[in-house]
Amino acid sequence: MNINDLRRLDLNLLLIFDALVTEQNVSRAAKRVFLSQPAMSNALSRLRDMLDDPLLIRDRRGMQPTPRARQLTAPVRAILNQIARTIQPPPPFAPASAKTRFVIAMNDYGECIVLPMLAAALRRLAPGVELATQTLSAADSEPGLASGETHVVIAAANYMTGNSAYVNSEPWFDDDWTCLMASKHPLAKQRMTLKRYLTQSHVYPSPLGLRDNIVDNWLAAQNVQRHIAVTTRSYWAAARIVAQGDALLTVPRRIAVSLVNALDLCVQNPPGDLPKPQFSLNYHRIYEKDPATLWLLGVLRSLEL
C-alpha cells in the first residue's frame, strides 16, 4: 500500500482493529466501540480483505490473533494515540513561561497611549514575551492578520470596515477632542468659538497620511472649513509646531494630556459637538480560537484606558 492507497482506507477500521485484538471477542469489541455485533463482524471481514490476513482465528480458548495481527498491534495503537494527541484542544496559553512574540499594528496614537500600558502589563504577566509594533498605514492590514505576521490591529473604529467578512472588529474605547495652542497664544484665555476656531491656521496630525477625518467632516456638515497650514503623521511633531507658533492643534484628550505635560501648551475645548474618536481591536477570524491571541486580547481589554 502506498500513499495514494490511503484514500481507500477507512480510518475507523484502525480503531476497530485495536478493539478486536484487545478483546479477542467480537461481541466485547463491538461494545467497546459502540457498534452492533453484525456491524463489527462486517468490519472484521473488511479488515481481513484489506490486510489479506484472517487476523483472528477461533480455537478452544476463543479468538487468537495471527502473527500478522500481533505485528500490527503496536503500530496501529501508536497511530491512534498520535491521532488523539493531534486533534485534542491546544493547551491554554501559559504567559509566565511563554517565549512568544506578539506583533501589534497601531498608529502614533496607539504607541503614545496604549503601548506603554500594554508593555507594563506584559512585563508583569509574561516577562518572557516580546512585544513588537508595526506602523499602521492606509494599506489593507487584513493580509498581515491572516498570515499571522500581525496579531492585532489597534485602529479607528471604521478602519477595518471593508474586511468585516474576515476580521473581527471589536469596539474598544472612545476619547474626547481637545484644542491645543501655545500658552502665549492670543486665544489662550478666551473661550473657543467656531468663529475664532476658523480664523486660525491649523496643524493636522494624520497618522495614516489621509485627509479624511472626523473634525473636517464635522466642519463640512456645518458648511465651513478650516485652513490647514501643516499636515504631519506625528502628534509630537504637530505639537512642537504649535508650541512654537500661533496655529491650533485638535487632538484626542489622552494625547493632549501627554503633550501638555511635555510642552508649553494651553488646552481649550473645541467648538461644537464633535463626534468622539472611537477605537477598535481587530483580529482575524482564523485566530479567534488561538489561545495566545485570546490571551493578548484579554490583556488589552483589561487596560484602564
Task: Describe, in plain words, how this protein is organized in 3D.
It is a single chain. With 305 residues, this protein is an alpha/beta fold. The chain has three domains: 85 residues, Winged helix-like DNA-binding domain superfamily/Winged helix DNA-binding domain (Arc Repressor Mutant, subunit A, Orthogonal Bundle), CATH 1.10.10.10; 99 residues, Periplasmic binding protein-like II (D-Maltodextrin-Binding Protein, domain 2); 92 residues, D-Maltodextrin-Binding Protein, domain 2. It contains eleven helices and twelve strands. Helix 1 crosses helix 2 and helix 2 packs across helix 3. The chain is rod-shaped. The mean pLDDT is 91.
Break the fold down into its secondary structure elements and pairings.
Layout: H1 12-23, H2 26-32, H3 37-51, E1 56-59, E2 62-65, H4 67-87, E3 101-106, H5 108-125, E4 130-135, H6 142-147, E5 152-156, E6 167-174, E7 177-182, H7 194-199, E8 201-205, H8 214-221, E9 227-232, H9 235-243, E10 248-252, H10 253-262, E11 265-268, E12 278-284, H11 291-302
Helix pairs in contact: 1-2, 1-3, 1-4, 2-3
CATH class of the largest domain: Alpha Beta
Residue-averaged pLDDT? 91
CATH topology of the largest domain: D-Maltodextrin-Binding Protein, domain 2
> What number of structural domains do the residues give?
3
| CATH superfamily membership of the largest domain | Periplasmic binding protein-like II
Helix content: 40-55%
Using the 3D structure, state the CATH architecture of the largest domain.
3-Layer(aba) Sandwich
Biggest beta sheet attributes: 5 strands, mixed
Which residue ranges are poorly predicted, with pLDDT under 50 across at least 5 consecutive positions? none
Oligomer: single chain
Query: Radius of gyration over alpha carbons?
Result: 33 Å
**CA(first)-CA(last) distance:** 61 Å
**Element pattern in H and E:** HHHEEHEHEHEEEHEHEHEHEEH
